[in-house]
Design brief:
By secondary structure, the protein is mostly beta strands. It contains no helices and 5 strands. The chain has one domain: Roll (SH3 type barrels).
Length: 72
């Protein structure tokens, strides 16, 4: 069997990896993800635009390898 790639749709909620944002506080014992964030736009090559709960857009795109699905 094959491993299928993860695809998010606009409206899905995700956690983003703290490693990708270069967060240092807590080190390896700190939280692994931050969020949840809402996917607002799915670009090509696995890039996504995210919006926080308070409605502010995150300043850059995030790759699918740095995101995990959030089940609310």
């Amino acid at each position: 069997s094959r491993v299928r790639g993860v695809v998010f749709k606009p409206g899905d909620f995700v956690y983003r990896s703290n490693d990708a944002s270069h967060a240092v506080a807590g080190g390896k014992l700190g939280p692994k993800g931050k969020g949840p964030y809402e996917v607002t736009d799915a670009l090509r090559n696995g890039a996504y635009k995210l919006r926080s709960k308070d409605g502010t857009m995150l300043p850059r795109t995030w790759n699918v390898t740095n995101l995990k699905r959030c089940y609310l």
